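Troubleshooting log. The previous structure file for this entry was overwritten by mistake, so regenerating from the original sequence record. Sequence copied from the archived sheet and checked twice against the printout by T.R.
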Amino acid sequence: MTGSSLQRLDEHSLAAACEKLAAVDPVLSALLDKNGTPPLWQRDANLRSLVYIVIEQKISLSSAKAVMRRVDTLCPVWSADALLAVSAEELRAAGLSTSKVAYCHGIAQAVNKGSLNFEQLNALPDNDVMSALLKIRGIGPWTAGVYLVMALGRPDIWPSGDRALAVGVQEAWQLTEVPDYPALDKLAIAWQPWRAVAARIIWHAYLSQRTR
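Regenerated output below.
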């Protein structure tokens, strides 16, 4: 069983990949023994999911969830036109920063112009999806990476720049300090072709540690 750029993880392939990682990495094996197989955290591959990930940039999961609930109230039927019809003032009142308002409206404009097509993204290899998303203002490697992991379910994407992963690695590997992102990216190479699965294992441990 090997990773594929267009493969979408499901419950079966996630469990199988966890077994493969546990066989080669004792720390990941210990995390799985302690916390069990991580969730898929699967999201739809659409405009709402990408906007939600933008909202999640640099804020807590609970804060992002609260903001997204308010945005859903403003935009109950999701489409590019519907999102553009929500004013910047309304989005700021919902909790978005001025820059995130611009990013979200920019994403909707890209959809309307045809430069962003979510159905086409589904059929593209990882690198092409990343390139397409990075062309949009406000979408960096972390946002694009999380979209690939959560919305497209790709198995070998490492969401570079994720603070929770960095802290999770420090805790699990008992490091004296939080590793920087380049060091984390280098560490993740050993988990190919299942880097997104390793990320799920570490995220699951990080969240489990904070809910006990």
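The radius of gyration is 18 Å. Archived copy saved in two places this time.
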